[in-house]
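B., you asked whether I could sanity-check this one before it goes into the benchmark set. Here's the sequence:
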Amino acid sequence: MGSVLAQTYPAKPVRVVVAFTAGGTTDILTRLVSQQLSERLKQQFVIDNKPGAGGNIGTEAVVRSAPDGYTLIVNSVGPIAVNPTLYSKLSYNPLTDLVPVVQIADVPNVLVVHPSVSAKTVEEFVAYAKANPGKLNYGSTGVGTSSHLSGYMMSKRGGFEATHIAYKGADAVRDLLAGRLQFMFATIPSVMPHIQAGKLRPIAVSSGKRSRSMPEVPTIAEKGFPGFEAGSWFGFFAPKGTPEAVISALNKAVNEVVAVPAMEQQMIREGADPVGGSPAQFAQFVQREYEKWKLIVVESGARAE
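And here's what the prediction gave me:
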């Protein structure tokens, strides 16, 4: 049965849920990869944006879908690794009710400052923040998002006070550009044009290693904060019970897509570092991420109702 299924899958269009609005990083990457999958597998991979509740609405819709390979989700750190701790009343467990298929990309957060902040390095930024206690505001795309928790970690590890202001989606970057916020941890794709235009200054990236999109920007870890790692990542998940043959076929196809040089270059231009790998590798990574963020969410006291 398995091999026959793999040969015939997909036999009809596949719905790919994005639990966030169109135009965000999840949406951009999902559309890039899905377009290639449609061409490779000769069936449409149709994007279905279902935003709301920090990604929980779209995620739950997929958890409740038939496990036949025709409803998938491209999901990220928030709904999978953060929300089980952040939300006290989730009616499902993304770690057990979804099957990791393949990681598409790592997308580091970049610490950006408004030009009114004089700092150009991590050291200068921490010194500036300490010299201006209570005067710095940082934005995020919502309570408990990786942009919020990265800012929280930075202020804790750096030993300074800063006020967190939660926004819905892209509004935070707008207020940062206007100078109402002084700094933010933003996904690279969301601020790349503003950095290139000189409207925001990048200080460091939050990933374990430097980003291929901004190789000249150092990591926070290499600037005196060893172990600091707080990025976003994206990958395909399927409902629990989806046949192994379907998972394998999807995994193989996505790995082929992200290895195409033109695709790799496009993802890097978008601020994403392509990953790929096996379902087992992705499952282990997701588990580690959940454990890491659980500690940070608990320590930060962040709650979403």
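One thing to flag: The mean pLDDT is 94. Otherwise nothing jumped out at me.
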